[in-house]
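Class, study these two lines:
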Amino acid sequence: QVQLVESGGALVQPGGSLRLSCAGRGFDFHRVRINWYIQAPGKGREVVGWIVPDEVGVLWHKAMRDRFSISRDNSNYTAYLEMNNLKPEDSGIYYCNFAEYWGRGTQVVVST
């Protein structure tokens, strides 16, 4: 059974950092592109970025690309979203995905 499990979300102050994890199981993790999305309060899901099987991370979201990075550890079946200099507008639920499969998300709240 395919599973994606996000973790690492938390309440953090502006300027802080977090590392989100996306653990995959039940499929050939090292063969698939893993995508990261954000769903901010009251908005639809937006692409944050992705990482392809050869381990190159792409930050797509313009507001995040200078502060976030994406990596993966295929030996641990996990992808990561490193988030630095967090801003209140980064708040939301972060999801990882591949194909039609989604995790349940992990919540990030950036607030004083």
